[in-house]
Amino acid sequence: MVFLDLRRNRYWSVPLAYAPCISGLSEHSNLSGGKTPKLVELGLIEPGCRVEAYRARARAPEARVAFVASAKVSLGTQAAFWLACARASHALAVKRLDRTFNTLASVRQNIGAPRLTASAAVSSFESLRPWYPHKRICLFDALALSFFLSSQHIASELVIGVRASPFAAHCWVETGGALAGDMSDHCASFTPIAWV
Question: Which of 192, 129, 187, 182 is nearest to 160 (CA)?
């Protein structure tokens, strides 16, 4: 079983021999009283914490947000793009996904009427992306796109998925039940373990 430690920004795997302890995560349960000593020892769960019910999550959707013919991108949209990329760069420099996810969640609470359609927003982001000097890395691009979509008042969800053997991780953005700026066949091979 694979866990993502958002505070330390690293993955842990736990042998299936510990699965009986981990299975308690699928229900409302109090994890105190030594029920999960190995998880506490690894720092995955704090002693006495309460875990809410696990929300089942399907694989990535097959549908993709359609790209529209690139029209002229407004200065406001360009500014929002640069700010979103700067926020993503800062998040990666700090290396605290827990704080980044909290920031992203709080930004999304103020979403009003969309400024662009999802197609226009994703197309604008992709047309501007080559101009931002950062290597194409899925975490950076997903964070930047998430911040950008939020700035355009478009609801979205950042998803992190893993494959166990051989281990691989990937993240992507979904909006309106479709992938935004990623290939569905690639994402479909990962099992989601975190989303915000």
Answer: 192
